[in-house]
Amino acid sequence: MMAEKKKATTKKTASKKPDTKKAAPMKQEVKKQAPAPAAKPKAAPAAEKAAAPAKAVSTTQQGDARVGVFICHCGTNIAGSMDIEAVQEASKRIPNVAFVDNYKYMCSMPGQTVIQKAVHDNKLTAVVVAACTPRLHEPTFRTATKDAGLNPFRFEMANIRDQNSWVHMHDRVGSTEKAIDAIKIAVAKAALLQDLHPKSVPVEKAAMVVGAGVAGMQAALDLAAAGIKTYLIEKDMSIGGRMSQLDKTFPTLDCSQCILTPKMVDVGRSENIELMTWSEVHEVEGYIGNFDVTIRKKARGVMTPKEAEAKGIVGGGCNGCGDCDGVCPVIKPNEFEVGMKPRKAIYINHPQVVPLIYTIDFDSCVKCGLCVTACGPEKRAIDLEMKDEFVKVKVDTVILALGYEIFPIEKKEEWGYKRYENVISSLEFERLICASGPTGGHLVRPSDGKTPMKIGFVLCAGSRDNTGTGKPYCSRFCCMYSLKHAHQVIEKIPGCIPYLFYMDIRSFGKMYEEFYYRIQDEGAKFIRGRVANIIEDPKTKNLHVMTDDTLLDRPIDMEVDMVVLAAAIQPSDDTNRTRKLFGVSCSMDGWLLEAHPKLNPCGTTTAGVFLAGVCQGPKDIPDTVASAEGAASAASIPIHMGEVELEPYFAQCIEEKCAGWGMCVNLCPYSALALVEKDGRTVMQVTEAKCKGCGTCGGFCPGGAIWMQHFTTPQICAQIDAFLLGGEQ
Amino acid sequence: MSEESGAKHKFAFYLGCIAPNRYPGCEAASIKAMKKLGVELVPLKGASCCPAPGAFGSIDLNVWYAMAARNLVLAEQMKMDIALLCNGCYKSIWEVNHKLKHNKDLRDGVNEVLKEIDMEFKGTINVYHTAELLYNERFVGVDKVRDSVTNPLTGARIAVHYGCHIVKPHKDREFEKEAMLNTEHPTWMEELVAALGATPVEYRNKMQCCGAGGGVRGYDLVHSLDITNEKLINLKEVKADALTDICPFCQLQFDRGQIEIQEKFGVTYNLPVLHYAELLGLAQGMSPQELGLDLHGISCEPFLQKVL
Questions:
Q1: Cβ–Cβ below 8 Å for B182 and A413
Q2: Chain A interface disruption, residue of B182, B185, B188, B208, most A CBs within 10 A
Q3: Which of A59, A209, A369, B200 is deepest in the core (most CB within 10 A)?
């Protein structure tokens, strides 16, 4: 009977029944098996189950339910791919549906008014909106439901856009039928929805920023300025990140150090910032408002004055004098100088470091003790036996500013990086041209120390590369810094000609295009063509850049003294580990995934965790700083609110059914459950603030004693029944 | 490795055109030298041209698929994987085998043609280059090659020409050994050369084409020789005693091409060009006559005097 009815209705909505039916073979099978009487009361079994936990929480009796269904066109996003009229007609026949309407943009003010009016006029008990996705508009429609006078959790969304019209754009019949199914399922749950009340918990008035490059520093400074205690965690020995390695910045050509170092000093000085360098996030527990973060302070081998004082060495600790550096016998390449300058086993990256505290590289330290002697009995800053320490802090919100690293450009074998001495990366160029770099700002060829007079710049080196070796994305700032590099060589070396081999010059920012014209006028040569390969002349160590000039349509063999590869960038090596600790997703290319690429670029799907700077995707300095300020603003909102609302999806124990075995206690990934003595019996108890509503315990409990709010067994069974048995009148 | 150890691996040996017709020494050297390394090469009887990937592929891919498939079916009937000694053959035979295995439409099309001669492509065998067998320790490996040497080519400076089709296109190559997947600057052949006791030498623009492939030689001889000439200039600069290759077509271009370059451009190089199998044969103690080195266009004598 059911089955026949279903067929009859869907025929109206979908004329090509047999085709569309293929999509749900399971449904057909069940229908065949389901004897007519069993199907008669439709969602009746669910109603029975719903009665069971009545004691635990008040339940809406299904018979009283009056559900309103509101179908959104989303312009043509939904309406263009399905028959809205047919969906509306079919929705009217679903049990418990008291009202159906549709509107072009349900999320707009008039759309929300339609919902509110309908709730009042029809005495609705629950609202179903068939529209985009809960990810985008669940909060919107919950608010609308609340404004209509219902409990906001009396709202259920049917996803008929992201999971339907967008994927079945060319199957109008199929998507219409799928939308009807999605609405049936949503209505079945809506009929059983209960009033729920979110818990508010007080928050820690503190934030954490992971990564102290320009993004992390800016975010920390903003939070600190807003009066928020901020822990700034940096894995390197000093702050400043990539920006501190750069010489000048485009398009203004101001010196990177000059604009960055004052900020570094501010960070070091700020009373509200607790700077933890040579440290990394080790473990994360908790949730927005109450993150418990364990930080591993890597053994630095050198004590700060504060640490020394704590150990009773008054007036001791490292003052950055560098006496130790002078005596250390171990020599290693300095990573900050991209290996082009030596450092000792006890070292600082560069003279302007913040904090000015030396660090021992224990991987190469031979523990000869010369530095300890040089440091002297007063400072006593060096401790060769220092061990990693673990520090726990409580914070409300977290900003990840994990930065980037240079793509290993030697993987593009055809350009000979690391094989030919005079092929260098753009970061090496930055250090070579920088006044504080290994050559004091004199640009020289690595092979013979001579000044190059013809320099080839290879743009998109590993970016926009679909060969599988490089990165498919645009790294977004290489065009601009290569223009800047061209300017720098013209300025510093009279007669030197920069040749830029490019695909397109992407100079899209404020004053960027003007900068491009300026560099053209200064005499830089632009050759449009991807570089096929670079060949070294073994005698002169000159390089032949082989490409096509696609504007003149002819092959080019350009002999130059030096080649600079504008290498692609990729997420820094620790990004993946750190993001997992905070439950943040990444996209296919490894960059961290924002909550919404346009409307929530700083947020993530983990409440209370925000993104700043390049870890979300390639950005130049202005964009990085803007994103950091955005993240800081977003991260300070919950702190200023003083408390956060937790979604009331807690597990609840039905104590009469609980056998007190405690298997759920061990299963809970959030340590939210515990066994307690109550009236002489052992029963489980939930700490609601800790429960995430994941349902692990509820799914497992052999006695069915765990009630998952908002995802109750009767609700889920009713949804399954609605899908398998039809649920039409 | 003694001759009596018996063959651990057997392959249907696909000869192609140039090796048996122009450089029979390559064929002889491959069979004899590989036998010492435990690889038996059984003649693939009835095989045709691979057919040449550039010449046929540029005109009608379906003919290319069907002819290569026929050669593959002959080996399928022998229930043996194919071994071959030429990069051009490698492109045709390996790539068509790979494409037909993974593309049902293509396979059905080819089988419709093959039906006329009562054949069917089943996709039951694999295709290997002999150089690959030598480099991959699953079959031989560099260590065994080194162990088989009785007459080390000590003191010889040997440059390597890989040839294009063995390494390119990168996305269509699936060697088991990762080192062989390096398209832009591979060094695995240098390892094989060093295993013979010789000194491999790097030279400018090593990965440049020989000039012959892709139908260039057939279409525009002077242009093709111009490319070859550029490679020879670079080889002369590093004072290589010989050039080694793993492709008889490249070998033809470098060897007989030097005579043509002499005629057309008036430049003489006299650089001996040997297939790696021939070098391996020499290092294993085979005589120049056995290897048919006297059939080369450019005399191998100066090189032989250095290593024998």
A1: yes
A2: B185
A3: A209
Distance CA A411, CA B276 (A): 28
* pLDDT (0 to 100) of residue A62: 58
Confirm or reject CATH 3.50.50.60 for domain A407-570, answering yes or no: yes
State yes or no: pLDDT of A336 exceeds 60: yes
In this prediction the pTM is 0.81
Across the interface, do B204 and A533 touch by the CB < 8 Å criterion?
no
pLDDT in tens, A441-456: 999 999 999 999 999 9
| Domains A206-403+608-641 and A651-708 belong to one CATH topology | no
Cis check for the bond before A41: say yes or no (omega within 30 of 0). Answer: no
Task: Quote the pLDDT of residue A295.
Answer: 98
> Considering Cα of B196, then B199, then B202, then B206, what sign does the dihedral take?
negative
Q: Give the distance from residue A339's alpha carbon to the nearest chain B alpha carbon, in angstroms.
A: 24
Does residue B57 contact residue B38 with C-beta atoms inside 8 Å? no
Eight-state DSSP code of residue B141: -
What residue in B sits closest to A420 (Cα-Cα)?
B204
Confidence at residue B6, expressed as pLDDT on a 0 to 100 scale: 56
Q: What is the maximum span of chain A, computed from C-alpha positions, in angstroms?
A: 94
Rounded to whole angstroms, the Cα distance separating A444 from B219 reads 46
Q: B233: helix, coil or strand?
A: helix
CATH number of A206-403+608-641: 3.50.50.60
Chain A CB contacts of B206 under 8 Å are: none
- Domain spanning A44-198, CATH architecture: 3-Layer(aba) Sandwich (3.40)
Asked whether the beta carbons of residue B185 and residue A467 sit closer than 8 angstroms, the reply is no
A537 touches chain B (CB under 8 A): yes
CA distance, residue A418 to nearest chain B CA (Å): 12
**Which among A192-206, A489-503, B160-174 has the top mean pLDDT?**
A489-503
Say how many C-beta atoms besides its own lie within 10 A of residue A531's C-beta: 25
Tell whether A466 lies on the interface with B, counting CB pairs under 8 A. Answer: no
Contact residues on chain B for A412, CB-CB shorter than 8 A: 184
Indicate whether A28 pLDDT > 50. no
| Of B170, B205, B238, Cβ closest to residue A535 | B205
Q: Report all structural domains of chain B as residue ranges with CATH numbers, in order of start.
A: 9-129 (1.20.1050.140), 150-307 (3.40.50.11810)
Report, as an integer, the average pLDDT of A207-213.
98
Interval A466-486: pLDDT, tens: 988 999 999 999 999 999 999
DSSP labels, A327-366 = H---EEE-GGGTTSSEEESEE-SSTT-SS---EE-TTT--
Per DSSP, the three-state class of B199 is: strand
* Per-residue pLDDT tens digits for B234-281: 999 999 999 999 999 999 999 999 999 999 999 999 999 999 999 999
CB-CB under 8 Å, B237 with A538: yes
**How many beta-carbon pairs below 8 A join chains A and B?**
25
CA distances from A124 to A44, A114, A191, A357, B229 (A): 21, 13, 10, 67, 88
What is the predicted ipTM?
A: 0.78
Question: Which CATH code for domain A651-708?
Answer: 3.30.70.20
Residue A535 has pLDDT above 60, yes or no: yes
Q: Which tokens go with A152? A: 């906001």
**Residues of B contacting chain A (CB within 8 angstroms):** 170-171, 182-185, 202-205, 207, 237-238
Task: Give tens-digit pLDDT for A608-629.
Answer: 999 999 999 999 999 999 999 9
Tokens representing residue A655 in the block = 């104590």
- Confidence label for A199 from pLDDT (cuts 50, 70 and 90): confident
Partner-chain contact A413 B183, CB within 8 Å: yes
- Asked whether the beta carbons of residue A414 and residue B170 sit closer than 8 angstroms, the reply is no
